[in-house]
Amino acid sequence: MRRVAIWSTDPVGERMAGPGIRYHRLSTELARSFAVTLVAPGTGVPNVPYDFRPAASVRRATDVPGDVVVAQNLPLGLARGLHRSGVRLVFDLYAPALVEAAAELSVNAPDHAVSRYEEVVAMTRVALLLGDAFLCASERQRDHWLGALAALGRMTPAAYATDPALRSLVAVVPFGLDPAAPGVRRKTVKGVVPGIESTDRLLLWGGGIWNWLDPLTVIRAVGRLAERRGDVRLLFLGMTHPSAAVRPMSMADQAVEVASELGLEGRTVFFNRTWVPFAERSDWFAEADLGVSAHRDSVEARLAFRTRLLDHIAAATPLVTTRGDVLADLAESRGFGRVVAPGDVDGWVGAVAALLDDEAHAAARTAARAVQGELAWSRAAEPLAELIERVAASQPRQVSTSPVVLRAAMTLARSSLERRGVRATVVAAARTVSGGSRR
């Protein structure tokens, strides 16, 4: 049985965001065919079919128990050590790092935004040059990454001759749904959260508030809708990321400020300040009448795969979302949601009011149930299992790691000097170039 190591940079345990959930669920599915070890920060999830290893215990390539490693990103030294030792590397590009980093830094505009972005560019280049194959979440993302790989010389005549579609280079492995739609086990919102009654209609923003999203339009629309009817409530499910490595984002503070300025906070708009435990999240989604998500017109939205919406689909909850990403397109084409132009407050008011109509709401629920099987984790993981087999059976790629690793190390060092000074940079550099090899 082939050994596969899944590497998550996000925590896996009681509280998980998208990456942690993704790698926990992919590890669960892959364990049907491979000997899987999930390496991640955190304490792990009990009663799983894969092995779990805390990321802090993995320092060198020899510590990684896999013939194939699947990772969103890897420490620089570890990536070099694994590649040099013949381990096959599959990099997961489902969250386009270059675009997300540009979106975040353009809003926060920290003193060292340029150097921070250069770090992301350098590490993405390492992944694209060292990776044996790649994953993404949609055909639209696949086009994006094929362009990047072509620019780096990875779309060769030889590769094209054997696989014109290049599916063996970049495979679509979307985020998936849990095996069964959740049901209401216990009340967590209606009649429980002060200010939200059991008879209210609940709009749930099912994840964090990141800088590239647009909660402000939704808040303003709900405030206007509340002037017509008194039973509409908007709840933001998470305000802080479960990973300490993710810095607080200014958009969350702006959302609270706008809700407060409009006199809506605690009356019509509510913020859950902590991250909901993984085992409890289905209870929150099961109580929602509508799932909502909004973003601005941006490249980020064009390439996004809004994982927050999948829990709503699993609960057969109708959606209202901004037009532009692939799940919004799916909601509109399959009839389980309404889409609105970016920043269109009036459009949001109309879409929410229309979907709260009992007949329209019931029809959208039926449509959401019809697509659940297509988005199940078991189905989402199939292309990854096939890719692992192909990559494991292929000949090792003969690529010199020194130029790309040296270039990335210099970029990281320059950025660290700007932000942390010489002493901390020396310590970080020693860790960066470590990672070892199996030879």
Structural topology:
Elements: E1 3-7, H1 18-30, E2 35-40, E3 51-54, E4 68-71, H2 76-84, E5 88-92, H3 97-108, H4 113-130, E6 133-136, H5 139-151, H6 157-162, E7 170-172, E8 201-205, H7 215-226, E9 232-236, H8 250-261, E10 269-271, H9 281-286, E11 290-293, H10 299-303, H11 308-314, E12 319-322, H12 326-334, E13 337-340, H13 345-355, H14 358-371, H15 377-380, H16 382-393, H17 402-420, H18 422-433
Parallel strand pairs: 1-2, 1-4, 2-3, 4-5, 5-6, 6-7, 8-9, 8-11, 9-10, 11-12, 12-13
Helix pairs in contact: 2-4, 3-4, 4-17, 7-8, 7-13, 17-18
Molecular structure report:
- Helices cover 44% and strands 13% of the residues.
- By secondary structure, the chain is α/β, with parallel strands linked by helices.
- β8, α7 (215-226) and β9 form a beta-alpha-beta unit.
- The protein has 18 helices and 13 strands.
- The protein is globular.
- α3 packs antiparallel against α4, α7 runs parallel beside α8 (250-261) and α17 (402-420) runs antiparallel to α18.
- The chain has a seven-stranded parallel β-sheet with strand order 3-2-1-4-5-6-7, with helices on both faces.
- The chain has helices at 18-30, 76-84, 97-108, 113-130, 139-151, 157-162, 215-226, 250-261, 281-286, 299-303, 308-314, 326-334, 345-355, 358-371, 377-380, 382-393, 402-420, 422-433, and strands at 3-7, 35-40, 51-54, 68-71, 88-92, 133-136, 170-172, 201-205, 232-236, 269-271, 290-293, 319-322, 337-340.
- It has two domains: 3-176 and 379-433, Glycogen Phosphorylase B (Rossmann fold); 201-375, Rossmann fold (3-Layer(aba) Sandwich), CATH 3.40.50.
